[in-house]
# Entry
Amino acid sequence: MGKTVFLWGRFTVLLVATACAAPATTHPSAAMPVGSCHVMSQPEELYALSDVRPPVPCTQPHQTETYLVTRLSGPLADTPIRPPHELLVPMVTAGCDYRPIRPYLAAGPHDAQWGVSVWGKVPTPDEWAAGDRTLRCDLLVPTTHPNGGPVLTAPLRGIMNRPESAAIRRCNLDGRDVQCSLPHEWEWVEPQGLTRNRCRANAAMFAGRLRGLRIRLGPDRSCWVGQERHHITVGTLREGMAA
Amino acid sequence: MTLDQQNTDGPVAWGDRYPETAEPRKRGLTRLLSRWRRPGDRPRKRGLSSPLARRGGDRTRTPHTRQAGVRRYPQVAVVVGVVWAAVMQVRLFLGGHVGLAGFGENLPCRLGLANFRNPALAGWEHVQPAWIAHTWTGESCPPEFSTALFAQAAGKWLTPLLGYPGALDLRALGVVFGLLVGVVCGLLVAVVPGRPLVRAGFASAVGLLYADAAFAGYLISPHAEPTALVAAGFLVVALLLVWERPTAPRVVATAVPALLVIGARPEYVTFVPVIAFALLWVPGRRIVALMVATWIAGLGVFHVVTETGFDDHRAVFQTILHDDPTAAADLASLGLDPALAPAAGLSRDDAAWVSFADRYHRTAHPSPLRVAGFYATHPWHLIRTVGWGLQGVAGLRPNYLGSYPEGAGKPEGGQEHRITVYSAIWEVFRAGPLLVPVLWIVTAGAGWLVVRRRSLTPSEKATGRLAVVLPGAALAQFAVVVLVHGRVETVRHMAMTSWLTAMCLPVAAVAVTLVLTRLRPVPRWQHRHESCASIHSQMDEIKG
# Structure
């Protein structure tokens, strides 16, 4: 009896010991600079208020990239205990200014980023109690695969000057918006609300040419450019980046 | 109580059936008692000395003679157990596996696992059984504990052995839980009273309960419920054994399934008083029972204190204030800011809640006791909330969680109906949720009548005790779920209450049968200890 109990006890201890997760290394929230890239492959990690996983090189698969690091301010930021989620979300929304995004991406007047969303991260409760009020603002890249999560293997900083920007440009196939890194027929050209002639001029400036291209004015007066004869393509028509 | 169980130090009721005669001769006392005898209660050992010799402590008796009077029908138990283990495997896996969608349940993250799922889905649509190794950091994996982690750790160990992909495949858990259901059914055959067919029928009714579409899905899910439900089956077996003969090993062994149930979810702390009552109900080994009950209570309270965070938003704003014309006054009664009355009924995800969030977090928050006190002084609110709770029990299974894996050709949120015996019976409760407490009362009443009959065997009385305890456990669990979760996801939170209520059906059937068939009163003279000598003289005469 005693031996059986001992064996079962040892089995249980072994089972739990082998099954339990090893403690992960962490990185302070305050030490995540602008331009750092972060792996958040699980939705729970994205929705968590804080992120202390060490950043990865932006050439490795990642989900978010920090474009702004600032400090939380206001009455709530003075509280010694970190406020709950529903109070922090408005603070984060207000703190993560959208204006630095286009310069960060190096977007020109005819470039439109599409599918990129902003996610803020605040210090952990312990870091907050220690006085850290760093607010980290990340850009989340869009999903490129219908059954896969968002993944990018290139830095977002200055991406509009590189062919990888097709992953965050807006294109259209059969009336459905897709990223330009996926098969498409039309590509969006900023801005919208224009006449056909103005759209043609912008498309020419966007693609650096008009020969072999056609333009389409959407119902909302959005400006689209595509290759002739219903050509399905992948990538962007942006000047200097076309395949 | 049979005479061979007098070493339990309990009072001897001479009205209890005397099982010793191997060849019942229709004479005298034997003739009278033979009406209540069933094959299951005949002793295997024969040729024992007179009852007085045994009662006085026959030094020559062997361990086998201590077991005399209780038949286990091991072959029937094994057959029933194997059959139900097989039924569960077939029911879960034949034609493609089924389960229950996790929908955000991330308990296995404590084992370094992450669900491998289609990120385009919200989680309620399909069963996503595969979990992959993942390194969690910070607060993305909350530090919660559940005894379900033991089962999931075992599943993690079994996954590669069974050839499933990933670090943990919930189908491995389904295999294990299905086998354990078979073990529960087999053990029930051994411990419940009656002929083999009756025992097999009762165990099969319990097997059908586990196999029902309302509960089987949990067995392939990341929720904590399957561990608790299967452990509850073992707890029933353990309690029946304790009530049959409360030896120290049996009492101590009860602690294992009890702790597995109580530690699965903080709400299951309601089992602590129920189990303590159950252990202390029968005389004998009360010191050990008290000690075990204290352990269970201590660990249960520790678990609930460390794991529970009472969310008064659900209990107050989404339950008490739902469609409440006197919201401001009720908020004041609860000690909350009456200015929050316009937020009545809003969930935290509601965009309109944001404007109230700051004021809500600056106001005082009621404790569960204060909310309970509010219900005590506001009967109309109590009736409303109890009504929602009863509807939750009557709902039986959450209707928004899918049963099939992605790619099985089933629509999102599609639910399976492979075995639906209890689900079909539950149509009655859906039509009249008030019948749920009626079932509890009938079960407990029949059980109480069984317990009070001295003419019944310990195993029969144990069934009666089970019939009393089950509704008590269901009611306690119901009360806590109603208090803590209110009308938020009531059906899913009522899973244990629903299981206990469904268990009432076969238990009540046995108890009512015992009441109806064994209600024949035992002559008064048989109840008195003074009549022992008379009985013994008659027995000696019978035995020649």
Observations:
- The interface with chain A takes residues 106, 109-115, 118-120, 134-141, 149-150, 152-154, 156-157, 348, 353-354, 357-358, 361 of chain B (CB under 8 Å).
- Residues 324 and 344 of chain B are 8 Å apart (CA to CA).
- Strands of chain B lie at 113-115, 130-133, 168-169.
